[in-house]
Specification:
Helix content is 35%, strand content 20%. By secondary structure, it is α/β, with parallel strands linked by helices. It has a single domain, classed as NAD(P)-binding Rossmann-like Domain (Rossmann fold). Strands 3-2-1-4-5-6-7-8 form an eight-stranded mixed sheet, sandwiched between helices. A hairpin with a 2-residue loop joins strand 5 and strand 6. The mean pLDDT is 94.
């Protein structure tokens, strides 16, 4: 292991060499390589997570570039998952990356998710979130949830320690076809929090948002924590 690369993490008493080794041994799946998936992928790769899977069937579009910081103008029209893989490999050659240029569906979800230790939600579809929730619950895999809209975001961890699922929090939610605005840095903040939660789950450092939902309004910087 390139200890010097990770020295600022290893020197943390709560984290240490054991935490770094757990990151190296971990396999994390990021569902969706958009606004949330971008900072998640960047920070997990930089932190030294050993294996990262990225699943996204979409291509890079010009309208993505305002908030999806994984991508460049020259990549418009190219598959997001493959571009994300290339970027991660440039950041950290220690990381093994698997790109899935498809969407997560009922036909492939269990086969893909079963290969990973932690699943991170970077999608914008309630149907996909219910699917992640169902499969991770059945396979007993921690599910790091994140959502954004306009100036707001929320983060939680399901299927880890305490009882609680995404479907318990949103039992009747429906997808909306309306395109909602979002300020560019908002997914950066929420995705970074998701990366922190994943690192805590993997390393055993700190207290993950298990059984708690953290809601943030970045327009006024109000934060609310809700017990689930």
């Amino acid at each position: 292991m390139k200890d010097n690369r990770y020295s600022r993490q290893i020197m943390l008493p709560e984290f240490g060499a054991d935490g770094q080794q757990r990151l190296r041994d971990a396999k994390v799946l990021i569902v969706g390589a958009g606004g949330l998936g971008s900072p998640v992928a960047l920070y997990l790769a930089a932190a030294g997570v050993g294996s990262i899977g990225i699943i996204d069937g979409d291509v890079v579009s010009t309208s993505n570039l305002q908030r999806q910081v994984l991508y460049k103008e020259s990549e418009v029209g190219l598959p997001k998952a493959e571009c994300a893989k290339s970027r991660i490999e440039e950041i950290n050659s220690d990381v093994s990356v698997e790109a899935y240029t498809v969407f997560l569906t009922v036909d492939n979800a269990e086969q893909i998710i079963s290969q990973y230790d932690v699943v991170i939600d970077g999608c914008d579809s309630f149907a996909t979130r219910y699917l992640i929730d169902d499969v991770t619950h059945r396979l007993r895999k921690p599910y790091v949830f994140g959502s954004i809209g306009e100036f707001d975001g929320a983060v939680s961890v399901f299927n880890y320690g305490r009882a609680g699922r995404f479907a318990d929090l949103f039992p009747d939610a429906e997808d909306s076809s309306d395109v909602k605005g979002v300020l560019g840095p908002v997914p950066g903040v929420i995705g970074t929090l998701q990366a922190i939660e994943a690192i805590k789950v993997i390393s055993g450092c700190g207290e993950p948002l298990d059984g708690r939902l953290l809601s943030i309004n970045l327009l006024n910087m109000n934060m609310t924590e809700i017990e689930l």
